[in-house]
Write a structure and sequence with these properties.
Layout: H1 14-24, H2 26-35, H3 37-42, H4 54-61, H5 67-79, H6 84-95, E1 104-108, H7 116-123, E2 128-132, H8 139-142, H9 144-159
Parallel strand pairs: 1-2
Helix pairs in contact: 1-5, 2-5
Length: 179
């Protein structure tokens, strides 16, 4: 299952690269060190915070209380700009080694501005593409019940063995028998 992510180099996405460039820069780093703006914005209605209680929000923000952990998060985001060669290998594996696996892509419909779900559909033409209409970047937080229902229905569909062919009376017949 694939949710609101990518699996290829970001070289073809200049807007994403610019955003990551801003996030890794010293000015943003200083502001984030002082204000924790990255985690706080993620805990808003844009991110995971649409359905969070105050206690949930405090727990979510807890790990980012120290400047050291804020810097670590910033470094992870900045590192995404350096992984295009690795992501090229990931995309190659998706198209080859993993191509025959059943795939569900489940994206928040309010946060796929770059068409990444469609790109996964090109990589996995037989994938099931699903979306949550009112969800953003973290659809599992926006509507956990609907999210899990989509996964459960998809899994039931792919995990159920296909019934053997039947004759006109509903009796199973083998593929090589005379009907």
């Amino acid at each position: 299952m694939i949710t609101n992510t990518f699996g290829w180099p970001l070289a073809g996405y200049p807007a994403v690269r610019r955003t990551l460039g801003v996030l890794r820069g010293p000015p943003f780093g200083l502001v984030n060190d002082l204000t924790n703006v990255l985690a706080r914005s993620t805990a808003t209605s844009y991110g995971v915070g649409r359905r969070m209680s105050r206690a949930d929000r405090r727990s979510f923000l807890g790990p980012c209380r120290s400047r050291r952990s804020r810097r670590a998060t910033q470094q992870v985001l900045a590192g995404v700009l350096r992984i295009d060669p690795i992501m090229a290998d990931v995309e190659r594996s998706l198209r080859t080694t993993l191509a025959d696996l059943p795939v569900l892509t489940l994206f928040g419909r309010k946060n796929d501005r770059y068409g990444w779900q469609d790109r996964f559909q090109q990589i996995f033409p037989d994938a099931t593409a699903a979306g949550l209409a009112d969800a953003r970047h973290f659809p599992f937080n926006d509507d956990p019940d609907a999210y899990s229902a989509v996964i459960t229905a998809w899994w039931a569909r792919i995990a159920t063995p296909q019934a053997p062919p039947a004759d006109q009376h509903g009796h199973a017949v083998s593929e090589d028998s005379d009907r």
